[in-house]
Amino acid sequence: MDSPRTMFERIWSRHVVAEGPGGHTLLYIDRHLLHEGSTHAFARLAKAGRRVRRPDLTFATADHYVLTSPGAVATDPEIQAMVEALTSHTAEQGVTYFGPGDARRGIVHIIGPELALTLPGMTLVCGDSHTSTHGAVGALAFGIGSTEVEHVMATQTLWQRKPKTMRITVEGRLALGVAAKDVILAIIGQIGAGGGTGHAIEYAGSTIRAMSMDERMTVCNMSIEAGARAGMVAPDETTVAYLEGRPFAPRGEAWAQGLQAWRALPTDPGAAFDRELSLDAAAIAPAVTWGTSPQDALPITERVPDPAAEPDPARRASMERALGYMGLRPGTPLAEIRVDRVFIGSCTNSRLDDLRAAARIVQGRRAVVPAWVVPGSGTVKRAAEAEGLDQVFRDAGFEWREAGCSMCVGMNGEVAAEGERVASTSNRNFEGRQGKGARTHLMSPAMAAAAAVTGRLTDVRRLG
Amino acid sequence: MEPFRRLTAVAAPIDLPNVDTDRIIPARFLRKPRSPEYVRFLFHDLRFGPDGSPRSDFVLNQSAYRAAKILVTAENFGCGSSREMAVWALDAYGIRAVVAPSLGDIFRENCFKNGLLPVLLPAEAVATLRGRLRERPGAMVTVDLEARTVTAPGGATHRFEIDPFRRELLLTGQDEIAVTLGYEARIAEFEAGHRAELPWVIPPR
Predict the structure, then answer these.
(1) What is the CATH T-level fold of the domain A287-459, as seen in this structure?
(2) Å between A362 CA and nearest CA of chain B
(3) Which of B79, B130, B161 to mutate to test the interface with A (most CBs of A within 10 A)?
(4) Across the strands, what pairs with A399?
(5) Are B82 and B25 contacting, i.e. CB atoms less than 8 angstroms apart?
(6) N or C end of chain B: which has fewer CB within 10 A?
(7) Contact, A228 vs A132, CB < 8 A?
(8) Closest Cα of chain B to A286: distance in Å?
């Protein structure tokens, strides 16, 4: 009998091209996803006279720099140039490109699983830290830097040191009003923004098993906010049902072979992880962040924490700085904090399940602050429109926009104003993330919808 | 890539934990091609006030630390976004080494690819070093990659771990892609086996 193995170990060992010096492994990459940020790598590749080795395994989309206001054209020539450069580089290198005007275009981490470019058992990389999202289908997926992007373009491989493994098991039923976002915020709050550094995380347990693929993607997406480059969930019938028939899913005999391989992927009973952690789903409440790190999450029923109560001086100084930036006073009930705008979108929370959850809260109510809904992809947008969700949002005074990264990162110029307080379904509440001086509170789509209709951070359970 | 062997230079302490790459370089600068202009983008919104003038409370704006080539940081420096431009901005400023108790994984990789040396030391040693740098502004630190040591002002020496592969590439300044292209036959052989065993990996056309 072979010794019990983790899913991570299975995928890793299947992709080893060579064991190099110093404990480094040359790892084969099955999928390489690109966006406008890959332009710098394309330029260096061309300058070195190299080609994309496997254009058939490489896919590109325009998401970070595309404007999401319907019909808008970038007036900033540098923003426009980022999209145009990706268009010309992908054409030169023969890479499939979902550019402006393509119905499949969308945020790279939305369209990967949605088009079944991402499959279980694969290695997948992208020059974006939220590549961990793709692990939700049972892939080993992680973000890389620009030089690594160029390396994968040229060689279809990467030198990697094997990360440690961590299993996070969540057991039990989530209470009404508690979302996947609250689960991952609770996890990050517990292990800290650096708690997963050097690790690949596997999320397991009955709570994760009961989640839809959209929800699993939300959880895996924010692995990097705990410092882990990769987060993954074992494929099961939910995964298979999700993937079947999608545009790039294997067909015929290849689908049958894939199914057989994927069913053998899950971690064996008794396999050892370097670190294990358990959470009780029943103890997780709807959460919001109060500070400038995703680890600064608390149940909405709590108050802004008091740095004076923090014994560690470095941590105290960091809290004081965060509260100063956020313009918050210790002891203020979180549910009394007024917001200036609401952003529902990003690779964390812009899938159909997210828009449905937000629309349920919005139905029959009015937004009292400017509120945007930015669907994750053209596919999500059309599916939401087919269900009438766009009308629910429009009737409530929300802006229904085109797909893209938009105000999660503001690279396309869609930013919040200095000092504006944003209730956001995105992944990072860093200083300046949504615009210079903008203040971000992270939360689930339903919680963001609740904030939009009340104008303050709100316990969604009180709206019913 | 410029090789890294041994560096003795002014070191600047950064005491804030979890300094993310958005703070090292805000997103609005990422569309700029790599150029010496990146020196201005480094820590931009921490370093400069609304009118563009240097903020006196930021460490690199204090005259003793201005010539720093080494940063000594708190935990989880470089967390967050994979933007390699964070390293480009550090490089443009002249920073060649970052000493920390822990670093963002992707940021750390990006350092290696650009000839910057990321050094991990125990939290207590790094905290003591930062304290020493605050007490003696402008003090020099030596980072020796050949000997794998960091020498604090006053002579305390800390040995650090670094894997031999990364160390060799830094010492010689080799291009990693060129190294990997030397494995072409192995890659091609792997691909043939992979395609046969996992036919579902190749996307349908």
Answers:
(1) Aconitase; domain 3 (3.30.499)
(2) 31
(3) B79
(4) A372
(5) no
(6) C
(7) yes
(8) 23
- Report helix angle A146-155 to B105-113, nearest 10: 70
Chain A environment of B25 (Cβ under 8 Å): none
Q: Considering only residues 73 to 112 of chain B, which have any Cβ-Cβ distance to chain A shorter than 8 Å?
A: 74-76, 79-85, 87, 102-106, 109-110
Strands (E), A281-432: 287-289, 297-299, 341-344, 371-373, 399-400, 421-424
Chains A and B: how many Cβ contacts under 8 Å?
Answer: 191
Is the distance from CB of A246 to CB of A119 less than 8 angstroms? no
Q: How far is A392 from chain B, CA to nearest CA, in Å?
A: 33
Q: Where in chain A is the domain with CATH 3.30.499.10?
A: 7-275, 287-459
Q: What is the three-class DSSP state of A358?
A: helix
Nearest to A250 among B34, B164, B200 (CB): B200
Place of tokens 């004081």: A320
- List per-residue pLDDT tens for chain A, 464 residues long: 579 999 999 999 999 999 988 889 999 999 999 999 999 999 999 999 999 999 999 999 999 999 999 988 888 999 999 999 999 999 999 999 999 999 999 999 999 999 999 999 999 999 999 999 999 999 999 999 999 999 999 999 999 999 999 999 999 999 999 999 999 999 999 999 999 999 999 999 999 999 999 999 999 999 999 999 999 999 999 999 999 999 999 999 999 999 999 999 999 999 999 999 999 999 999 999 999 999 999 999 999 999 999 999 989 999 999 999 999 999 999 999 999 999 999 999 999 999 999 999 999 999 999 999 999 999 999 999 999 999 999 999 999 999 999 999 999 999 999 999 999 999 999 999 999 999 999 999 999 999 999 999 999 999 96
Q: Which residues of B touch A228 (CB under 8 A)?
A: 105
Domains of chain B: 6-173 (3.20.19.10)
CB-based contact, B144 to chain A, within 8 Å: no
